[in-house]
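Dear Dr. H.,

I hope your travels went smoothly. While you were away I took the liberty of generating a structure for the chain from your last submission, since the lab meeting agenda had it listed for discussion. I wanted you to have the full record in hand beforehand rather than looking at slides cold. The sequence, exactly as received, is reproduced here:
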Amino acid sequence: MIKLALCDDEAEQRVAIGGILQEYAAARPALAVKLSVFSSGRELLDAAEEGGGFDLCVLDIVMPELSGIDLGLNLRKLGFNGAIIFLTVSPEYAVDSYAVRAFDYLMKPVEPERLFTALDQAVAVLEKRKAACVAVRTREGVRRVQLDEILYAELAGRVVRYHLAGGTALDSVTVRKSFREECGPLLADSRFFRCGASFAVNLFYVTAVERSSLQLDGGARVPLSRGLASQARQRWSDYWLDALEGGRQ
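The corresponding predicted structure, in token form, is as follows:
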């Protein structure tokens, strides 16, 4: 199932765009799309907090009280790691949309074919990300963890601690290899960056690269080894450029 949310403060737009999204769902029954429509950002945020969030969000940018950009930022703070597609009548917000890690940015009036293409590309990326997992050996046994769930991993004593979206953590059994070797499956994925001898971070969740740390969604900071700030910024930038370009091919 794909949980899809539409948020637009204008009733006519909700009807028009909602109709396109319903057509999309009907044309792709295998996806089992569940569409939820909201007239304000606050309504969508409340629903995300109560119901566990969405896979895809189609957001108008110009809305009262809470703009689409601010809504996207708040969704990210809640741990939303799905795709955001922005809709707007003006291109002036395109740069701001990158701060929200938007998947696409479409001009109104929206062409159904263009929105269908963006949705197909977003779904393909989401399904690929969900399929990527790592096997973590814990005291209770082997647990498969989606790479998408991992904010960062750190060497804590003699175990690797995986910090997960939602605020939980998972400890491995005692490791006998180096941190780099133990986290090889993570580091083989382009979204992970080894930012020190004992830390590997998921670039998807990075919101800012500072001189001595990486700031993540929710306010967490991961130490950044001396001299790696420039490399971290480049990797972060490359990751998002590759993600955006790959999604549009």
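Two observations you may find useful: Residues 95 and 105 are 10 Å apart (CA to CA). The mean pLDDT is 90.

With kind regards,
E. W.
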